[in-house]
């Protein structure tokens, strides 16, 4: 999968920008606050329809403007697609080949991206909600049916929670609540199975990458649903979750919310049996996130037959020299030599060109960014 070009209007600090990209490596050099991250963010928004940095779409619109528009041409399995995302005060509109797509879930997965940026430390350090968001976006890129199921689940959950606030706690039998629980479980089963499969694959690849870069340590990812499951077979998930929902009806009525289900999921990272969130250094936490991002490229290729576009935003900051060198070697050895000949497209931002291996530079298209202006 390749993004051939991009056209940006009224996005962040950009007025109008049109760029053609190399099919291989694209490096953007510039001081901080010049627009490097904004450019990578625009590619991400073109793919996901939302920012990786914040949830409020209007903040993407350049100050004193009323809309932003991002357009790009991609090559996917030798098919050319034109994608467009328009955001204004009324919301957003997405198009494929100039045709309006009514459901965002049907648009996502046309362009798949993996981004690594400093804020991704929150995947390790932040709340369970941050990690659930990560799962939903990444799995949704692999299978947009997951997003549709998740959307249905969230609508049912909202309906149930509103209903819980108006139920008599002494009502021993409520048929409508039983129907809602059954429908919730139908959707939840698919969400649990998809998340478990994704996290298993993520651990499989990332533990090898972690050892390659860090040089030692056993890296693990532990899925932590808030129901006790011995297996992730559909029959067991259905039985366990339905029992939890039924046995906690009074508690849920009192709290006015549903206390069990995939909306309360979490997962954690461990290094040599120690939770990285609590006991890992910031360098180890940062490497853990980088490793899962690199691991995702394997998963995407395995599942979709194509590599995603890899966006590396300021990947070398806050790491000591030895870790920088190991990451550069990994990117050179595996991401460039192994993948590049198989249509792996990579975007890198940096403040210093000399931290990047010369072999990578030789294959790259290099841009200088200054105050929202870009030149090769």
Please outline what is shown here.
This protein is of the alpha/beta class and 376 residues long. It contains twelve helices and 15 strands. The strands form three sheets. The protein has a six-stranded antiparallel β-sheet.
Sequence-ordered SSE layout with sheet pairings:
Layout: E1 2-11, E2 14-20, E3 25-29, H1 36-48, E4 67-76, E5 79-88, E6 91-96, E7 99-101, H2 104-107, E8 113-116, H3 122-125, H4 128-142, H5 144-164, H6 175-214, E9 219-224, H7 234-247, H8 249-255, E10 266-271, E11 274-275, H9 276-279, H10 282-304, E12 309-313, H11 321-340, E13 346-350, H12 358-362, E14 364-370, E15 373-375
Parallel strand pairs: 3-13, 3-14, 8-12, 12-13
Antiparallel strand pairs: 1-2, 1-4, 4-5, 5-6, 6-7, 9-10, 10-11, 14-15
Task: Describe the protein.
- The protein has helices at 36-48, 104-107, 122-125, 128-142, 144-164, 175-214, 234-247, 249-255, 276-279, 282-304, 321-340, 358-362; strands spanning 2-11, 14-20, 25-29, 67-76, 79-88, 91-96, 99-101, 113-116, 219-224, 266-271, 274-275, 309-313, 346-350, 364-370, 373-375.
- It is α/β, with parallel strands linked by helices.
- It folds into two domains: 1-112 and 306-376, Rossmann fold; 121-304, Glutathione S-transferase Yfyf (Class Pi), Chain A, domain 2, CATH 1.20.1050.
- The strands form three sheets. A six-stranded antiparallel sheet has the order 2-1-4-5-6-7. It has a six-stranded mixed sheet with strand order 8-12-13-3-14-15, with helices on both faces. It has a three-stranded antiparallel sheet with strand order 9-10-11.
- Helix 4 (128-142) crosses helix 5 (144-164) and helix 6 (175-214) packs across helix 7.
- The longest helix is centred in the middle third of the chain and has 40 residues, at 175-214.
- The protein is globular and about 70 Å long.
- The two termini are 23 Å apart.
């Amino acid at each position: 999968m390749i993004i051939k070009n991009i056209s940006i209007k009224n996005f962040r600090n950009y007025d109008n920008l049109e760029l053609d990209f190399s099919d291989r490596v694209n490096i953007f050099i510039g001081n901080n606050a010049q627009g490097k991250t904004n450019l990578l963010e625009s590619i991400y928004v073109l793919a996901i329809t939302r920012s990786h940095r914040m949830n409020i779409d209007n903040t993407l619109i350049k100050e004193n403007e009323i809309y932003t528009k991002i357009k790009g041409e991609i090559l996917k399995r030798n098919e050319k697609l034109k994608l467009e995302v328009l955001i204004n005060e009324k919301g957003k509109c997405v198009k494929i080949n100039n045709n309006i797509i009514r459901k965002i879930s049907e648009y996502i997965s046309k362009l798949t991206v993996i981004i690594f940026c400093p804020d991704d430390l929150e995947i390790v350090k932040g709340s369970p909600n941050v990690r659930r968001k990560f799962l939903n976006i990444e799995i949704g890129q692999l299978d947009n049916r997951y997003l549709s199921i998740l959307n249905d689940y969230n609508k049912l959950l909202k309906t149930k929670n509103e209903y819980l606030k108006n139920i008599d706690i002494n009502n021993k039998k409520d048929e409508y609540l039983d129907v809602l629980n059954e429908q919730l479980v139908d959707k939840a089963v698919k969400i649990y199975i998809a998340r478990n499969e994704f996290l298993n694959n993520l651990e499989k690849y990332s533990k090898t990458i972690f050892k390659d870069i860090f040089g030692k340590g056993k890296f693990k990812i532990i899925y932590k649903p808030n129901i006790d499951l011995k297996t992730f077979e559909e029959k067991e998930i259905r039985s366990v979750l339905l029992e939890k929902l039924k046995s906690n009806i009074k508690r849920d009525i009192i709290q006015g919310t549903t206390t069990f289900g995939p909306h309360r999921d979490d997962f954690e990272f461990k290094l040599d049996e120690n939770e990285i969130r609590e006991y890992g250094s910031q360098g180890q936490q940062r490497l853990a996130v980088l490793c899962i991002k690199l691991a995702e490229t394997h998963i995407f290729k395995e599942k979709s037959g194509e590599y995603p576009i890899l966006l590396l935003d300021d990947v070398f900051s806050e790491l000591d020299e030895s870790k920088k060198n190991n990451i550069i070697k990994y990117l050179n050895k595996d991401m460039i030599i192994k993948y590049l000949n198989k249509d792996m497209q990579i975007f890198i931002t940096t403040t210093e060109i000399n931290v990047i291996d010369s072999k990578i530079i030789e294959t790259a298209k290099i841009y200088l960014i200054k105050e929202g202006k870009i030149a090769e």
